[in-house]
Amino acid sequence: MTGPLVLGIETSCDETAVGIVRGRTLLANIISSSVEEHARFGGVVPEIASRAHLEAMQSVIAEALTQAKISLNDLDAIGVTAGPGLIGALLVGTSAASGLALALDKPLYGVNHLSSHIAVDALGEDDELEPAIGLLVSGGHSSILKVADLASDVLVLGSTIDDAAGEAFDKIARLLELDFPGGPAIDRLAQSGNPAAIDFPRGLTHANDLGEHLYDFSFSGLKTAVSRYLQQTPAAIRADVAASFQEAVVDVLLTKAIGAAKANGFESLIIAGGVAANSRLRSEAARRCESAKIRLRTPPAALCTDNGAMVAALTSLMVQGGQEGSPVGFGADSSSGLERLLWR
Ligand code: KG4
Ligand code: ZN
Description:
The protein has helices spanning about 35-40, 45-70, 85-105, 115-120, 165-175, 180-190, 205-215, 220-230, 240-265, 280-290, 310-320; strands at about 5-10, 15-20, 25-35, 75-85, 110, 130-135, 140-150, 155-160, 270, 295. By secondary structure, the protein is of the alpha/beta class. 5'-O-[(R)-(carboxyoxy)(hydroxy)phosphoryl]adenosine binds near residues 13, 138 and 166.
């Protein structure tokens, strides 16, 4: 095992998560989630999330160190999610990371949550991923990216113009009276449904949309169509609705991402973010990429949703690339886009 020993802290939403990597090797991944405290509100409540981070932080760090069999003094760098995310939640993580970096006199890296979703795919792999097209699909974002270098050069080709893919899963799950978060619940229900039962709309795929919105997504029309279908069909088969909705999302995501890879002459596609845990997206991506002769990379499902290993992975790539860290006291940014990979 070679490379820098890095601890990564993630607190952008409802997971207090700490990961430790050595170079590209995962040594520890500990997650404490407050999801059950939010479930009865049907979404994440920022104040509850921040308090849960404060309560869990120390023990999650301690558990990660034990799992990795290292002590704090062994670390070469500390990484932390600096944005985007819930501001109060981010501040708990950045404060903890700054405190550690100061006390230990180690470099501190404030990194982008979205690019760390993609960078987690580097773990356990020696071969370079780049250049690649990235399809980032999470609860707050859905984008197609041109990834020249995971740690320093990521360009957004297109994004959702309304709901994110995960948000669409969560909203449709609510209509189907499923648990929060909705993605895994729809994934499970869809297993027993027919994906071809209902022909739901595929947003921004018509010829007249493709000029301006070639790599953009829109899921609000799909949401309306599902809602209307449920209102007008008292005997609707919920599993068919879930499977047909999921199929529409998967179809649009893959048509655009594989289209971007072909049009830009890229041979690799990385799919990452919480929705990349979706079983239908994973199997269909494998099938379509094989026939398009595109190398597909997706993190293991457990590393697709928020975790600290992804922050440690991106930080490790930055340290290996010789990038300098962030100044202690840097500000978190709740709405940062992907252009800001590292806080300076
Ligand atoms: O990346 P993530 O953990 O957090 C954000 O950065 O937003 O993504 C969370 C999103 C949620 O909307 C959740 O419903 C969705 O990912 N998700 C899934 C699945 N697992 C999580 N969506 C579809 N199928 C899944 N199996
Ligand atoms: Zn995320």
